Each structure stands twice: as C-alpha cells, then as structure tokens.
Amino acid sequence: MNLVQINNLEYDPELFKEFKTNTAIDTLFSIAGGIPRATNWMLIGDPGVGKSTVSLDILSNVKASGGKTLFISAEMSRVDMYLYVQRYPKFGDLDIFFTGELIEGANSKKAIEDLFNKGWDLVLMDSFVEVQADVKDSSNMNSTQSEKWLLDLMYKHNLGNNETNTYTSFIAIQQVNKGGNFVGSNKLKHMTTGMLEIRFEDIDNYESDRYMLFSKNRRGHVGKKLFFDLQTTGSVQYDTERFQKTEKIKEMRKEELQRIKDDNVKFDEMFGMSLPDLSELSNIPEVSDSIITLEEYIQEAGEIEAWNNLPETTKQKHQNWCNSAVKNTAKVNRYQKVVEWLDKNK
Fold first, then answer.
1. pLDDT category of residue 86 using cuts at 50, 70 and 90
2. With CB atoms 3.0 to 4.6 Å apart as the test, which of 27, 93, 94, 128 could cross-link to 172 if both were Cys?
3. Which fold has domain 10-238?
4. Segments of the chain assigned to CATH 3.40.50.300
C-alpha cells in the first residue's frame, strides 16, 4: 500500500490538455472546454435517441482536430457503418475494430490489449457491456472478472502505460435498465469521470427534440441541457442559440432570487423583524392547537384598522415573514411582533 502526498508529485503538463471537438459540446465536457486527457466517460440514453451517432461525431471531430482516435464496435458490422458513412462521411476516416470479425477461437482479450498498446488519445467503445461479453466468452472469465479486466486496462492507459506513453481517454456507451437508468458495478461508477445522458424531451415521441446533459461530471457542469439535431447530414447540429438563451434565463432568475432575498433582509432590518437564529427555534415546543391567522390575531389585539391602512405589498411581506416560522409557537411570537410594530407606527 502506497501513501501519496499530492504536493510531492510531479505531473506531465500533457495530462491537463483537452481534446477539442470545436463544437458546443466542449463546454459540457469540462470547464476548460474539451475532453480532458486520462478520463473515462459513460454515455447512456433512450433507445434510438442517437447515442452511436453523437459519440461517433465526437470521435470524428477529435480526430479532425489532431487527435489519434479508435472506435471499437461490438454491436455493428462494416455494412452498418457503411450506412452511417453515407450520412456522415467523416465517420469513414475513423480507425475501427469490429470485434465480431475475429475468427472463431481468437482471443479478443489479447487483441484488445495489443490494440490499446499502440497508444490512442480517445477510444470509443460501443458498447462497454458487449466488449466485456466478448472478452468473457473468449477467455473463460465470469462477468466480474471480465469487467475488472477491462476497467484495469482502461486505467493502465489513462496513465499512459503504452508504446507511445499516451494518456488515453475513453468514451463507452453503456446499457440502461427498463427505467432508463445506468447499469453497472460500483467500481465502474467510481472510475467514471462523467455520465453523459442523451434523451428525448418526450420519451414517448421519437419525433420530439433531443438533448444531452451530464448527470455526473468531475471536470465540468451538470444539468445543462444542450439540444441537438440529427436531421442534417455531415455533422450533428448543436442548438447553441437555445443553449445560450436557456443559460441566460437561468442566470437572470438567479440574480432576481438574490435581489428578492436581499430586499426581504432589508425589510426585516428596517422594522426590527430580522429572522431569529434557527438554533434558537429548535427548543421551542410544538403546540397542538391550531394557529389562527395573522389577521385574526391582529383583530383580537385591536389593531385591525392600522393593519387595513397598510399597503398590500407591506401586508404581504408581514404575512410571508410570519409564515416562514418553523414552529407554531414561533409563528405566534412573530404575530406579536407585528402587532407591536403596528402599535408604534399607526
């Protein structure tokens, strides 16, 4: 067992360079923009949503920007790929290994090990579970052993342990269960840098808009929807204008919520009604009797006329402040403070 102190380690600067697709998806993969080296990405999604097309588009764009890329297909044949290339000609320039073309009795485990050892910047596997199954069947392994072997192999090449000392990143399409959720062991989940989900906006309508987002990402943002279109040929079209508008609206909402919060604090301070420390409220006993409304309380206190003379916005702020009490007794205490304030300001 080795103990590590990060401050005592030296890192190759190449580790912190990103592969660029030169598309909007770069902003999703990482804050720096692009696919970081030595990382592992799982891609899941609804049936027919375009997982293979999107991932092949990513791979082709990385190759076009100078990366050395590899596609391992355990689910398609040369004929399948030919049909893809008719719509997306750039896919025809990818280096592809079809696991189904291995002769009977060949050891797919050794074939993949030898292939990875050449050193690649980015490797796409379609799919993780099918590559794992091929190795399992040809090497007399069980599912746990074949998964461990593949994960260990990915980690080995993450660290650049190959002929060219290349820090390899992996994108693996992964199967999902009937609920559309990720299927995989805890080790697979822990080794995953990010989980890219590709979905239909309306899962029951294959004609609905498609979008992608990261539900997990150690290098970038999560939950940001990027819509895309597969209707055109040549490349996947990302709706960057829609993405930018959505992010702008989110930012505006965030700013507005902060402004409202600041205004409420100023209001409380102005009328001596600042929220008490919540720790003080934790010891206030709960009362079982139903609590009357603020207006009923004010009426009983004889301050209803002063209350009625207040602007509606001021009344609403008083109501909100009273309703935000975490205990019934605390709410009554706030009622009393409102009455005291009315008495002083009528």
1. very high
2. 128
3. Rossmann fold (3.40.50)
4. 10-238
